[in-house]
Amino acid sequence: MARTIAPSDQLVSDALSHSLADQRPDRAAGARERRNRRLMLSLPFVSVILFLVIWQIIGSNTDPILLATPIDTVKAFWDLLSSGELAPAFATAMGDLAAGYTLAMVVGILSGVVIGRSPVVERIVNPYINFFQATPLIALVPLVVIWFGVGFPARVTITFMLAVWSIVINTSTGVKETPHSLLDVSRVYKLNRFSVITKVALPNAVPSIFAGLRIALGKALIGMVIAQMEISVTGLGGIITNYGNAFKTAYLLAGVFTASLVGVIAAALLEVVRRWAFPWTRDQSPGHL
Amino acid sequence: MTASAVVTRQGATVDIVGVSKSFNQRSDSARVVLRDVNLTVRSGEFVSIVGASGCGKTTLIRMVAGLAPYSSGMIRVGDTIVKGVPKRLGFVFQDAALMPWRTVRANVAMGLNETGALLSKADARTKVEEAMGLVGLSAFADYYPGQLSGGMKQRAGLARALVSEPDLMLMDEPFGALDAFTRLRLQEELAAIVARTTTTTMFVTHDVDEAVFLSDRIVVMSTSPGTVKDIIEVDLPRPRLRREGLLDNRRAAELRDQVLGLVIEDQAR
Ligand SMILES: Nc1ncnc2c1ncn2[C@@H]1O[C@H](COP(=O)(O)OP(=O)(O)O)[C@@H](O)[C@H]1O
Ligand SMILES: [Mg+2]
């Protein structure tokens, strides 16, 4: 008997038009929701402005060594920028972070996949993951200096070392939690081992991986700044250390806020990549940024 | 469909001979879930499996699919004894089991993974579009599963199973989680689709009316341990017509009562 798949019959297309009608959103409710959203969105700005005003008042009545005012800090920032000191420091910070964090990303995701797919490997490496999770890794800075010296490799190592663990753990968790039904699907439709990882386990882990990447970014920032402060006295960490030693608090704070800026830019880049490369995760609320 | 893609095919036969299944429990005692199940499904036949929850319907159908091993006995699909997943199998899962990161189109295309290598890209694409048309999802081809209703997800799961023109379709309570209206509509669509193909279908359900409406035969299973209690021939002409959700036919009502009686009798035991 010949078997063909023919276009659908009347019954099916009736059903389709029904389901289409069900999909239309309610427009008035949408507008109300948008107005509420706008109100909610303005709250953080109000809060920040209020904070700056209070800080300015307190700061102008305090010894400038203890606390610089926001206006002094902005002036210091401008001074650092126009003297040509800030741009290279910013670039060094971005470079250290990019190198250490990218390395952590590659190593973390690859080893996370292996650990997530293999219970044997998981059991073997679990003690080490737990150890490094529990250890304040900053305490290893002197050891890293002994091994790698005081330059770029040492700073990248510190950044990497702090960032990698959250990525490993979140990737392996995400991979391990691939629903049984999806693994059944990949068996029914005969995906090979490699495709099961690339087409099922890894995509399933993406939301979890990004959560890990976000935590790791915070830790990488800490590692990068500490390394610049304690190892090379360069970049933004160097600015913070040097001006701190000179009791120039406004310049110190300008360095701190530039470091925050590095973090904000990196977090935004991460979010852009997630939305662009993984559109199906868009509907899941990213929480906060 | 392009002329070259029309293949003369036959639905697979399924032979389940003396199959038992026990799960090892933490304490050494193995729990027997299925005992001495015997069932033969003919080529192109639509067989429903009904029985109380926990009687082993899912276990049985997963063993036929090669997704779980059986403890003893033999299962044969076509002329091959089931060890891994049989060739040209379609499986529709209760929870649709779509990949959330793939659009409907890409999910359906996954059904061509086994057989698609033999097709040209254009032919494969045509098949995917046809399968989506068949279940009325063409307009939603670029949607992600998270944007679909439960009924539409099941349609997508069905299209993924149909796209390879399987010799055997296994369905595990595919409409069980849907609301009554969607369920009725999908039952009718499934009947229409299956009527156009030669595939053999094993359909697990706890809805007796659904079983009567769709099936050539209904296998009633008993519990603890699960086994085939009775097999009812559904001697209703096709196409079957409904009124107010129920089959408009005295014989249908008799069959429904008979099957229901068997299930209830077993539970009262
Ligand atoms: N992996 C498993 N390990 C142990 N027991 C199981 C497993 N899967 C199913 N069972 C048991 O087998 C019995 C039959 O389950 P199932 O086939 O899902 O029933 P049904 O689909 O008919 O509701 C149930 O009592 C269930 O607890
Ligand atoms: Mg079940």
How would you describe the overall organization of this protein?
The complex is a heterodimer of chains A (289) and B (269). Chain A has 289 residues and is an all-alpha fold. Chain A folds into two domains: 9-61; 70-281, MetI-like fold (Orthogonal Bundle), CATH 1.10.3720. Chain A has helices at residues 10-22, 27-60, 70-82, 86-117, 119-134, 141-148, 152-176, 180-188, 193-232, 235-245, 249-277. In chain A, helix 4 packs across helix 10 (235-245) and helix 9 (193-232) runs antiparallel to helix 11. In chain B, strands 6-7-8-3-9-10 form a six-stranded mixed sheet, with helices on both faces. Chain B is globular and about 55 Å long. Chain B has two domains: 14-88 and 166-268, P-loop containing nucleotide triphosphate hydrolases (Rossmann fold), CATH 3.40.50; 100-164, no CATH class. In chain B, helix 2 packs across helix 3, helix 2 (104-110) runs parallel beside helix 4 (150-162) and helix 6 (208-214) crosses helix 7. By secondary structure, chain B is an alpha/beta fold. At the A-B interface, helix 1, helix 8 and helix 9 of A face strand 6, helix 3, helix 4 and helix 5 of B. Bound molecules: adenosine-5'-diphosphate (ADP) and magnesium ion. Magnesium ion binds at residues 57-58, 173 of chain B.
